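Field reference: sequence -> structure
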Amino acid sequence: MISIHQHTSQENTVPYGPNAIAIIASIVSLGTIVVICSWCYKCWKGSEKDAESTESDYDSSSDSQLYGVPGHKYRAFAKYSTLSDVSPPEKRIDSPGYPKKSLKFSQPPPQEYDVQAPQPDISNFVIPPEPPLLDQSSSKEDLGKVYFSISYDSQDMVLTLKIIKASGLPAKDFSGTSDPFVKILLLPDKKHKMETRIKRKNLNPTWNEVFRFEGFPHNKLLSRTLYLQVLDYDRFSRNDPIGEIEIPLSDIDLGPMTLTFCKDLQPCKRQEHLGDLLISMMYQPTNNRIVVVVMKASKLKKMDFIGSCDPYVKIYSMHGGKRLDKKKTTIKRRSKDPVWNESFIFYVPVDKLRDITFVFTVMDFDRITQNEMIGQIILGYRTTGSSLRHWTEMMGNPRKPVAQWHRLQLY
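Structure field:
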């Protein structure tokens, strides 16, 4: 019996051959591949949902007005600021160069949307022509006047100049004033200069200061040009030129009799052209907000060795000389004529409209060194010239975007 049992066990034991092992390995490999593919599919669906969620977040901010340069993709950001409750923007929005998604019209506007504000038609939007290059002879901006007197003592060979006063000077500070003084030269000599005292926060300063140029015979004075330059003093940066006057002394009947002059200040010829910035602004009184659109820039100053720049625009909202908020556009690489079409929304109570100003600073981005400023413009009720005209036109045409070119300056 025992021998029969052992024989039966040996007959039932079947060893695995090479074919069976290959089949089992194939089944295991196929199962592993199916599991990996399923996991990858789930990950892909999850990332797709995140992207849709992110896009819907940008779509929900569709209360920005869409208007800009035709033919260019429009970008709008739901950036808000109020004078009563200013919170710092998120890092991803505040950082220059962060990509933003374009708005869509698939969703209805939020309840707080200004339903009375018309939707501008981009195709019919009037874009002002680009300003020509800086032409001092054709400039019409009022820079103020300077009053002064001249007399000459031929016996002592002394030319006496009295700077009396100035009037109607433009504001150069955020506070709506200037700190003017006058620089005096007898060209072509630029080494020996004289200056008046600084008059703090005064657009109509009075000096009554006397300056004497000694040792100048009459025939030598005839080859000289009296040069007066009014500047705005800045303690922390370079002084900002306001305007200048040039009078060839050969055109004046020099003598002991005092001659009094009143001359209009002209734009400084030595000012470098920094570029122009096209800004659109719209006032929506229903919601107490101002929609600012940085549209484009033209002929920006070259800032790197290849003759180009990487510009972006910072926007400061100022109230009472203090900065309330800061916004930034994206960076446009290697472009002296960048197009942005990016909008920003600011909430401004009616009682604060006279005190708020917007400072636009065009910067050149540098990955290695510090970013450099190209130029600035200031818009607000307390500005002058073209800036004040733009602000006044915006306030006089509520719910209508008003676009205007502005020449960049160094404040």
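Note: Confidence is low (pLDDT under 50) at residues 1-14, 47-68, 76-124.
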